[in-house]
Amino acid sequence: MNFCVLTLFPHLIEAGLGESIFARARQKGLIALQTVDIRDYTSDPHRRVDDYTYGGGAGMLMQAQPVYDAWKEAVGSFEKKPRTIYVTPQGRVFDQKLARNLAQEENLVILCGHYEGIDERVLDEIVTDRISIGDYVLTGGELAAMVIMDAVARLVPGVLHNEESAQTESFDNDLLEYPQYTRPEHWHDKEVPQVLLTGDHKKISAWRLEQSKERTRNVRPDLYARYEERQNVIAWLSRKKKHHIHMMELLKRGLGEVLCFHPLDGALLLEKGGAVMLTCTDTAAGERLLDRCPVDLSGRLFCVCLREIIPVLYERYHLTEARGCYQAYYTQGVPLTVPKDFNIRRLDVSFAEEIFAEYHELVTLEELKERLKARAMYGAFVTSEQGEEKLAGFIGTHSEGALGMLQVRPQYRGHGIGAALESFLINQALTRGEIPFGHIFEGNEASLRLQKKLKLNVTDVVLWWVS
Ligand code: ADE
Q: Could you tell me the end-to-end alpha-carbon distance of the chain, in angstroms, rounded to an integer?
């Protein structure tokens, strides 16, 4: 992730982000930060960058020319025109969802204003997003730019040491985080809550959830209302659990949002990777949900639970292909045995081409790279007689949470590598309290056999991916 900040105070940015996690991520090359001093681009002999406002009014305005020239110089180094954010109290209010969206970008340019703002004409020409960090006015945009960069940087894979912490935290599930404690056990006559000392993880999780709910209810009733809506949808989906595991897990894990829900019609969800999930009682109900959906769904991939709705999607969104899937899921909760014969470890993006050479029918190279960057893919390695390590097979988690992309190279088949890889990922999911699940395309007999061998429940064909 490359940040480029256009500012009159580059030292402020360098000082503000020069220590701690952001600085370490910079040293490791996970993020880059470049500052551009707008004043270096003024054509004014006295290095002025501001002037009076046409029509009168208090204060000065930054002029278009130096801002434009600074931006032009900065974006010249990028292959394609990057997203350019203007930080301003007149923008969309920044939140965790927007942070996640921005974290997908390779390059971000942030423009900081001063004085009364910037000439509107240059903003119209270069800015793609106007973002405010809250309903108050700062003296300039630098602090806002730093807030945005900090929140985005910590979502870049590898920036945080603890993999989990960027995934399960305040806001993703519309709940604020629960209170936490460290040593000593007694401090200022205050004790650490007893339950946290029991070692009983079920009880601890239940206590933490209650604390989160209470906090959210008290200080953020708006968030709590969203949480309750989500819980309602999960409860509705659980009435046909086997069909809906994928949608329930999507909502429980904070990987998607509810676009539309009606207890008599069904639910329409949007997954963070962009796919749409639909379940409906009949075609008319499905059509009503699609009609009421607040966002345009054209060009999206759909996952639906009713075969009869497929022609409706073909017609509405010009889709042309549907593939039926069995749903496999593991509810035993007991970790599976992973044989130690293979070295299983996470794959980085340098494996993209090697994997794509084996596995390209269902994904694009770009999608594979995205999954690798998200640290969602694992490989099993075997050591050859010459002592060389070879990638024998791989597996991953799709953006909507399903296990998949499992492939064992032909020469390594028949040794239990597929089972080892899937068991490994299932165990990881269990430690996070998730129900591991996957979709198996109709006709994939080898995968069906594997699911049964690992004791997963397998449904009939109950869902269709429509593209
Ligand atoms: N510049 C001044 N105030 C701001 C705010 N609240 N958000 C973003 N940029 C700003």
A: 30
Q: How far is the CA of 133 from the centre of ligand 1 (A)?
A: 6
Nearest-CA residue for atom 6 of ligand 1: 89
Please state, as a whole number, how many other Cβ atoms lie within 10 Å of the Cβ of residue 6.
28
- CA–centroid distance, 91 to ligand 1, in Å, is 8
Assign 418 to helix, strand or coil: helix
Q: Which residues pair with 393 in a beta bridge?
A: 380, 408
In contact, 439 and 463? CB cutoff 8 Å: yes
> Which ranges in 329-459 belong to alpha helices (H)?
352-358, 365-373, 417-431, 445-453
Closest alpha carbon to 289 in 269, 308, 311: 269
| pLDDT tens figures, 209-266 | 999 999 999 999 999 999 999 999 999 999 999 999 999 999 999 899 999 999 999 9
Nearest Cα neighbor of 169 from 158, 154, 182 is 154
Predicted confidence (pLDDT) at residue 165 exceeds the cutoff of 70: no
Pocket test for ligand 1, best of 9, 137, 146, 148 (most atoms within 8 A of CB): 137
